[in-house]
């Protein structure tokens, strides 16, 4: 497989998979979904989903990729057959669609960075109407999201070692530090403790089916599961690596960042007297307000750093979303990486246009009559969330009934000679063979 490229050692894969995991969902989606779903109850259910369902699913995905050494479609066909390949293809298509809206939100983050660093955004008073005007400005958003997509494409053209690894090595520790700094600051504000209470003390009477469903799909999304992105990355992992160890580092890192983001946001929201149930604009409205209150110099510095780091968190996620279809066309169709990237960039940009225009610019897209009058971006995000959660569960069925669990265990024991017979092994097997298929059954009843 040397012609396909490999990650250089343990740290290469962990960085790439962590980069793919940590992204907009940790800092943007997790807080707003927690805010809409009653706070702490959501957080608890989310954590349960991560450790019960998602961690084993992640391990399954990586092991499929490494065992087959191909893209998502190729891996399912090699270890199974062409029919199972369709599951890989569905994931690849979902990847492209996710990238199309994800890139729009990344464009917002980039735009806010530019506005704070180089304009006088912080002189504005009402950030809720500022956000409204900002997302309404089509030409600016086209520009920001296009630049972002370009950065993604250039990294993916660079190939495995150069582009992806280098992009992933940058600034993750910085993100961590800035989060800690903002948490420290937010805790000093009046009413901060109300935010902490909302975030950490559960009120179980607030659990609804929606809470559970939102937590479930977010947990799959946040770990980049179910689209085959980790099959693709797994195919670049060397046989000497310990997959279980790598997956646990990725899972913990992602969970810690999401948790810290909540710890930062909720004290800010409550001290600013805002509603935690604001929805998608939450961080884009609440945070600029805080940065403004910090005064012109500190505010500008903290604000621009924060949104820049949000961009840095989003970039490796975009890269993995793009690498997934690229690997398919390179492995299966033998196209040149560069040409594939150029065409995909155009495709992603075009199918992202309705999402980009769905916050007011085009009234129909802002209030879809067939979708509870929600916006188009939310519609696409919700649909792809379902495909990836179901995709992750179908993968478990694939492992159990087609590839067979003992083959997965053998793959996991490669690079981890103590694996067999451990509690970890039994827990992973149990989830993949019984728990996830059961979950799939429940989900299909709910969705249909
Ligand atoms: N995990 C990324 C995030 O949390 C999003 C993502 C989903 C990336 C699926 C790749 C595949 O923001
Ligand atoms: Na994430």
From TrEMBL:
| Pfam families named in the record | SNF
Ranges annotated as spanning the membrane: 7-28, 40-64, 85-118, 138-158, 170-187, 207-231, 243-270, 301-319, 340-364, 376-401, 427-448
Keywords, comma-separated and alphabetical? Membrane, Symport, Transmembrane, Transmembrane helix, Transport
**How does this protein lie in the membrane?**
Multi-pass membrane protein
**From which residue to which does any coiled coil extend?**
none
* InterPro entries cross-referenced by the UniProt entry: Na/ntran_symport (IPR000175), SNS_sf (IPR037272), YocR/YhdH-like (IPR047218)
Q: Which residues form the signal peptide?
A: none
Tagged with keyword Transmembrane helix: yes
The reply to whether Transport figures as a keyword in the UniProt entry is yes
UniProt-annotated location(s): Membrane
Mostly located where? membrane
The family annotation for this protein states: Belongs to the sodium:neurotransmitter symporter (SNF) (TC 2.A.22) family.
Name recorded for this polypeptide: Transporter
Q: Which organism is it from?
A: Chryseosolibacter indicus
């Amino acid at each position: 497989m040397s012609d396909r490229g490999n990650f250089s050692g343990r740290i290469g894969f962990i960085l790439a998979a962590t980069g793919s995991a940590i992204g907009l969902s940790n800092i943007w989606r997790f807080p707003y979904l927690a805010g809409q779903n009653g706070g702490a109850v959501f957080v608890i259910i989310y954590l349960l989903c991560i450790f019960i369902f998602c961690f084993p699913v992640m391990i399954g995905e990586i092991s499929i990729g490494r065992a087959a050494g191909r893209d998502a479609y190729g891996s399912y066909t090699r270890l199974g057959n062409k029919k199972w390949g369709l599951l890989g293809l569905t994931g690849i298509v979902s990847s492209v669609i996710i990238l199309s809206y994800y890139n729009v939100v990344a464009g917002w983050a980039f735009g806010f960075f530019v506005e704070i660093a180089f304009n006088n955004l912080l002189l504005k008073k009402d950030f809720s109407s500022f956000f409204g005007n900002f997302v309404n400005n089509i030409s600016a958003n086209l520009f920001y999201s296009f630049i972002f997509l370009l950065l993604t494409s250039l990294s993916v053209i660079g190939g495995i070692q150069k582009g992806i690894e280098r992009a992933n090595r940058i600034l993750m520790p910085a993100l961590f530090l800035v989060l800690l700094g903002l948490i420290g600051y937010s805790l000093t504000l009046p009413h901060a403790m109300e935010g902490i209470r909302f975030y950490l003390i559960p009120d179980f009477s607030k659990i609804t089916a929606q809470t559970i469903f939102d937590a479930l799909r977010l947990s799959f999304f946040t770990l980049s599961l179910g689209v085959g992105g980790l099959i693709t990355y797994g195919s670049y992992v060397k046989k000497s690596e310990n997959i279980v160890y790598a997956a646990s580092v990725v899972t913990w890192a992602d969970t810690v960042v999401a948790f810290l983001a909540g710890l930062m946001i909720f004290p800010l929201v409550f001290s600013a007297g805002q509603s935690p149930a604001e929805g998608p604009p939450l961080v884009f409205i609440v945070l600029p307000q805080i940065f403004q209150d910090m005064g012109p110099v500190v505010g500008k510095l903290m604000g621009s750093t924060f949104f820049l780091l949000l961009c840095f968190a989003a970039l490796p996620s975009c890269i993995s979303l793009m690498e997934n279809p690229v690997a398919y066309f390179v492995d299966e169709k033998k196209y040149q990486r560069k040409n594939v990237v150029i065409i995909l960039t155009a495709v992603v940009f075009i199918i992202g246009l309705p999402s980009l225009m769905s916050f007011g610019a085009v009234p129909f897209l802002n209030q879809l009559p067939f979708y509870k009058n929600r916006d188009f971006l939310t519609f696409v995000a919700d649909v792809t969330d379902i495909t990836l959660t179901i995709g992750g569960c179908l993968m478990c069925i694939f492992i159990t009934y087609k590839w067979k669990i003992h083959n997965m265990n053998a793959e996991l024991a490669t690079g981890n000679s103590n694996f067999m017979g451990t509690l970890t092994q039994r827990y992973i097997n149990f989830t993949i063979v019984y728990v996830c298929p059961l979950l799939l059954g429940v989900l299909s009843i709910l969705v249909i």
